Structure prediction request, 316 residues.
Amino acid sequence: MKKVSIVIPTYNEEGNIKILAEALLLQVSKLPQYSFEIIYVDDGSSDHSLSLVKQLTSENKIFRYIKLSRNYGHQNAIRAGIDRATGQCVITMDGDMQHPPAVIPDMLDKWEEGYDVVYTRRVDHVSTGFFKKLSSKWFYKIINVLSEVKMEQGTADFRLLDEKICNMIRNAKEVELFFRAFVKLAGNKQYAIDYVADKRNDGKSKYTVSAMLKLALTGITSFSVKPLHLATYLGLFFACSSVLFFPYIFYSFYAGHAERGWSSVLITIVFFGGLQLFVLGIIGIYIGKIFTQVKQQPFYRIEETNLYETDDTAKL
Ligand code: UDP
Ligand code: MG
Prediction:
């Protein structure tokens, strides 16, 4: 019997855990040909998420949990789940009911047909916020211009990954692993399923504007050095175009009002100062990446899990 792992990153989702568990059990009951493990990865929640998950695990051994020692972020939580999953395929999905469990049987069908990656595309719900829609659209637009990897709009971390791809993820040394791009590059047989995103069942989105910006920057700078090239071209362009000031300067001297040129000098300094900062910033992002990479910090630390035992809580 093939085993399927479902990995759910969970950060302060106390209002969603029960309802998602019930919805998942419903799907599982329709798929008796597989065995399942449902792994909740608690990403340092400060609410009752963990105790609710523990309660689930005590009621039904299909549920498993991994408690991370602190909040490591969505992507690292998924990574922790994939690293420890034991299924022949892993399905990752959010814990807020935005990713409908009803899609799971279709995903498994496609996997059986031989696809390594079955990813999903969000078709926006009428109730999806205007800002979320717009930011997601621009996120993909910008990433596709700046990055070497082409990604489709609306693809989120709701996907099925074959064991082969999971092993690639387990072996990846990259600190800030950006799944969307990594998976796109890794799998050669990919299939997309469209689904309508539901509203978040309970609680607020953890992706604030700054978190989204950070993810966008990670996405761009993790898979491309194009921004570095952009900086070079921009710098070159402005340096060359500053030559255009010369005729103006000569004219000013000739006309005898050279001191009026102060304003243009000032503007030039400010402008090029800004440009240099911009370029430096881009270089800084990459250096920051090298810095975090060479530190070789662990991607996450597991504090507690019941993955390996049959009755009580195991301490790692
Ligand atoms: N999440 C997490 N760690 C974080 C932030 C989010 O594990 O630091 C989880 C969260 O509980 C949810 C999923 O990642 O299950 C997606 O987060 P959210 O729903 O806030 O993102 P959105 O759907 O708004 O993009
Ligand atoms: Mg969500």
In short: The radius of gyration is 25 Å. The beta strands are 2-10, 34-42, 63-68, 89-92, 117-123, 155-162, 190-196, 302-305, 314-315.
